Amino acid sequence: MAETAPRKTFETLRDEALGWIIRLREGDATDWQAFEQWMAGDPRAADIYWDLAADDADVADALLQDRPIVPTAAQPARTAKAMWLGGGVLALAASLLLLLFLPGPTVTYSVETAPGQTRSIPLSDGSEILLNGGSKIQLDRENPRRARLADGEGRFTIAHDETRPFIVEVGEASLTDLGTVFSVTRQGGELRVAVAEGAVRYSRGGISRDLAAGDTLRIGRDGRLVAGEIEPADVAAWADGRLAYGSVDVAAVAADLSRATGLDVSADPAVARRPFSGGFALGKRDAETVRRAASLMGLRIRAKGKGWILEAPASGLE
To answer: Does residue 4 fall inside a structural domain?
Structure first.
């Protein structure tokens, strides 16, 4: 005589139900079939699952109506066939309700990097995004030709398609690929764009500006546009282990150093808006990197907590 499987404990069923809540948020047909088999395998499974699902934050708003209360009074004995049919109906009902109420796979998703870390993001259309440290970007699973840079910096190498332009959204502005390799930086309310190959169109409201290879554009907190130039090979130079600038302020260099090294680097307000043109190797991406950068800018560094501040040298040493 075949041995029957031991009856699962309440704790085991509860752990399994929690697993199903998480798994079915992005479940496929195989997952749903396995879930129905799990529901039908134990008459307690449905009640345990729904008690947990009702508490889950993702479905609490959707479950506006109470579930029918299952009578707990003594019931007439049911045949094995009736029990099997009852379990199957309950499992099917639960599956249909889950399809209606549980959120499916989200269309957009985010990719983040920690300071000092970079990450390559290949896209299904053949394009690639290289995300600098301390950055966050939002992408669309259904539309690989659109991205939103929430913070930080990215280099975009785009497979050009005239019928489906690639668009990067940054705040209220958008950047449209015209056959391009370009970088975008969003930091402290400012936006910087630099083009290495091809062209990019900047748009915001009724303002539009086309940028060619070697062009830069800085949009300040006040919305003012400042055009500039850069050697195309210096665009997103951080990807090659260096930083290079046509003309930026010290505050921007400090933010770039933070992203590239993982150190907390800031600029003293007295020098934050001082312009800088030039470049330097990132080397070991440590405090010595910050010190060398400060020296090239005619500044010094001062330790503050676990970070560094770029400031003017003491009087008479400048």
So the answer is: no
